[in-house]
């Protein structure tokens, strides 16, 4: 449920009627019923405008004018109860003797005083009485209807707010933008009420969107910049209607006009979502590249201040086969404390450096991750990196630590690796022990026994050489 905003409440205040100036339209001129509605109602409008022109409004007597003036003086001092008393004492007791225009002024002023005290129900009843008067001036009728529309909005009675606003629009040949936005917001609010179905919500959004678009067009036609929150309202309605391309179009405009962090991240997210739904591989690749470029732009501008955001940036780099930049993002985030120093993040940093062929730089984060792990799998990985660096001493060491910590998926394969390290260091007895451990598992038994057999022959050969040389 969307709550009544300060922006909307200001609109109501700006159109509230007061005193003897009540016949003037104090609300901004509305713009905008849909083109279809205008086209369909041309003949009817001609007739209704003629009906308004023939109205004969009775005069306002000097006595009534003076009472309204005294009440206005109190209202100007924010003494609304006192103003109401002046009004009641001067006019309330003789309503039947007043003409229709004088009664309209009386109820109109009551409505304003109640509104000023935030007594909206009483204000609405007063304005309803205004509309019941005969031969009401067209300007007064319009302003009353518009004010009631906004009061219903305050009360979150969006159905009646929309009903009154549409009635008001019927008589506005040249409406302006702001009230159209309010009408669009009312439709949006109606579509987000509790218990409404997705289908019903979409119906309301579909009704509201044309008014926002018309308001934007009116501003553009006047060489004015449409309001940021108008685009935000459009964005959320299009998003709820699952019109992703239109959401992207709005977000692309927002990042250019009002480049804020949330817009960059939302745009990147929308590119990713559309990419995952793309039926064409080519389209998917284009959207995924846009996602990376957008998220990277946010990163370069310093918008990514959370650890989770930087981790997402590194994962995007990894996905797009840019492991070096993934490692840069992670390393900087861990160094500054933005990214948490935990097993997963250390492991990701190590993997990024491994993928970037920076083996030596991967050792430290991999060791830290292994220390924080519950099993020996990362010690196994650390041993493998040392093997690739031909550092068999540390390789054997960390394979041993993996075996000691346990929880391994393939204890036998770790023992094979350790045996190979010992072999390359010439420690044949230690190698034999490792291969014997591996032989306990049938999956490595054949391989381990071949190694053990080879070690026996190698040991015999070395012993013979040693004996010959001695």
Structure description:
There is one protein chain. With 470 residues, the chain is mainly alpha-helical. It has a domain at 386-470: Serine Threonine Protein Phosphatase 5, Tetratricopeptide repeat, CATH 1.25.40. Helix content is 74%, strand content 0%. It is built from 24 helices and no strands. The protein has helices at residues 6-15, 35-40, 42-53, 62-76, 80-91, 100-116, 120-131, 138-154, 158-169, 177-191, 198-221, 228-240, 244-257, 261-277, 281-300, 307-319, 323-336, 343-355, 359-372, 377-388, 392-405, 411-424, 428-438, 442-469. The radius of gyration is 39 Å and the shape is rod-shaped. The termini are far apart. 39% of the residues are buried.
Reported for the largest beta sheet, the result is: none
**Overall 3D form:** rod-shaped
Q: What separation lies between the terminal Cα atoms?
A: 94 Å
The H-and-E topology, N to C, reads as HHHHHHHHHHHHHHHHHHHHHHHH
Quick one: how many beta strands?
Answer: 0
State the CATH architecture of the domain at 386-470. Alpha Horseshoe
Class by alpha and beta content:
mainly alpha
Q: What count of helical segments does DSSP give?
A: 24
> Unreliable runs, pLDDT <50, ≥5 residues?
1-42
User: What top-tier CATH class of the domain at 386-470 fits best?
Assistant: Mainly Alpha
| Approximate helicity band | over 70%
Q: Per CATH, what is the topology of the domain at 386-470?
A: Serine Threonine Protein Phosphatase 5, Tetratricopeptide repeat
Beta strand %: under 5%
CA-atom Rg in angstroms: 39 Å
Average predicted confidence as pLDDT: 87
């Amino acid at each position: 449920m969307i709550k009544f905003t300060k922006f909307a409440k200001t609109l109501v205040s700006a159109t509230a009627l007061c005193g003897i100036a009540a016949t003037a339209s104090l609300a901004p001129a509305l713009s905008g019923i849909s083109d279809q509605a205008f086209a369909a109602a041309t003949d009817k409008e001609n007739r209704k405008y003629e009906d308004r022109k023939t109205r004969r409004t009775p005069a306002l007597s000097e006595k009534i004018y003076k009472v309204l003036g005294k009440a206005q003086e109190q209202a100007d001092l924010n003494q609304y109860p006192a103003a109401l008393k002046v009004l009641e004492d001067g006019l309330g007791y003789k309503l039947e003797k007043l003409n229709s225009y004088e009664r309209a002024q009386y109820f109109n002023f009551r409505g304003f005083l109640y509104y000023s005290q935030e007594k909206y129900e009483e204000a609405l009843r007063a304005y309803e009485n205004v509309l019941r008067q005969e031969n009401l001036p067209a300007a007064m009728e319009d302003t009353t209807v518009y004010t009631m529309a906004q009061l219903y909005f305050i009360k979150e009675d969006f159905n009646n707010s929309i009903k009154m606003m549409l009635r008001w629009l019927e008589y506005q040949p040249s409406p302006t933008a702001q009230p159209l936005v309010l009408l669009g917001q009312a439709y949006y609010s109606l579509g987000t009420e509790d218990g409404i179905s997705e289908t019903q919500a979409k119906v309301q959004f579909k009704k509201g969107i044309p008014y926002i678009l018309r308001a934007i067009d009116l501003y553009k036609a006047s060489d004015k910049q449409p309001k940021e929150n108008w685009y935000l309202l459009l964005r959320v309605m299009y998003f709820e209607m699952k019109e992703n391309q239109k959401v992207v179009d709005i977000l692309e405009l927002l990042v250019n006009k009002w480049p804020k962090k949330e817009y960059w991240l939302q745009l990147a997210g929308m590119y990713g979502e559309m990419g995952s739904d793309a039926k064409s591989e080519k389209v998917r690749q284009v959207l995924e590249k846009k996602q990376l470029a957008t998220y990277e732009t946010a990163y370069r501008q310093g918008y990514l201040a959370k650890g989770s955001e930087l981790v997402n940036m590194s994962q995007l780099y990894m996905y797009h086969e840019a492991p070096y930049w993934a490692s840069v993002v992670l390393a900087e985030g861990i160094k500054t404390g933005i990214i948490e120093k935990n097993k997963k993040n250390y492991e990701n940093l190590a993997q990024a450096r491994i993928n970037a062929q920076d083996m030596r730089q991967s050792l430290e984060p991999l060791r830290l991750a292994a220390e924080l792990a519950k099993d020996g799998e990362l010690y196994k990985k650390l041993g493998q990196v040392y093997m690739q660096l031909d550092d068999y001493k540390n390789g054997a060491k960390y394979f041993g630590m993996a075996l000691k910590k346990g929880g391994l998926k393939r204890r036998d394969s770790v023992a094979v690796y350790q045996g190979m390290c010992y072999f390359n260091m010439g420690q044949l007895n230690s190698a034999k022990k490792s291969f014997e451990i591996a032989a306990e598992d049938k999956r490595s038994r054949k391989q381990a026994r071949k190694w053990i057999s080879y070690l026996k022959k190698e040991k015999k050969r070395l012993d013979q050489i040693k004996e010959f040389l001695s």
